[in-house]
Amino acid sequence: MLNPNEFLDLKAAFVFAVCVMIAVAVPTVPVRSARAGQAASSDPWTAAQLVQPADLVQELSAAKTSTAAPTVVYVGFRTLFEGGHIPGASFHGTASTEQGLAELKKWALTMPRTTDLVLYCGCCPFDRCPNIRPAFAAFREMGFAHLRLLVLPKSFAADWVEKGYAIEKAL
């Protein structure tokens, strides 16, 4: 019999495996430029809208002593968010699903368009993520003026957790 924590770990592993299978099935889009801090020509964001993990960590740390903290929103799968996420990040829906994108948009309607907003997923390699592009496009179309995207080239686990950056668990 599994205890609840083991069940959540297995559930998160299953969702991650499904994401990887989806990512492998999706044609790859070059991400070399995004890793270097530049956007690929087919992406809906500019190089200036990309933020690297170390830079976001510094920004969040500096914001602890001020009110200038960005609003960090996870746009991936709920199970992965529950397993661990950036401290202070919120979850409002999975952007790769119609219902999840609608929930994200509904939440966004309550936010000022001047909000410093950082989106991230990290379910799978950045260039194959099914969540970041629809989320970024939706927020951009809604008129968010300070919209950025956290670059996680491999995954949240590899590019955030394994680097020793802080995480929170559960909702």
Number of helices: 7
Radius of gyration: 15 Å
Low-confidence stretches: 18-37
Q: Architecture, CATH level 2?
A: 3-Layer(aba) Sandwich
What series of H and E elements makes up the topology? Answer: HHEHEHEHEHEH
Number of domain units = 1
Major beta sheet, specifics? Answer: 5 strands, parallel
Q: Strand-residue fraction? A: 5-15%
Helix % is 25-40%
Q: At the first level of CATH, what is the class?
A: Alpha Beta
Assigned CATH superfamily: Rhodanese-like domain
Features:
171 residues; alpha/beta; Oxidized Rhodanese, domain 1; 40% helix; globular
Can you give a write-up of this model?
This protein is an alpha/beta fold and 171 residues long. It has a single domain, classed as Oxidized Rhodanese, domain 1, CATH 3.40.250. The chain is 40% helix and 11% strand. The protein has helices at residues 4-25, 32-35, 53-63, 78-83, 98-108, 132-141, 156-159; strands at 50-51, 71-74, 90-91, 116-120, 146-150. The chain is globular, with a radius of gyration of 15 Å. The two termini are 25 Å apart.
Task: Give a short synopsis of this structure.
The protein is an alpha/beta fold.
List the helices and strands and how they pair.
Elements: H1 4-25, H2 32-35, E1 50-51, H3 53-63, E2 71-74, H4 78-83, E3 90-91, H5 98-108, E4 116-120, H6 132-141, E5 146-150, H7 156-159
Parallel strand pairs: 1-5, 2-3, 2-4, 4-5
Helix pairs in contact: 5-6
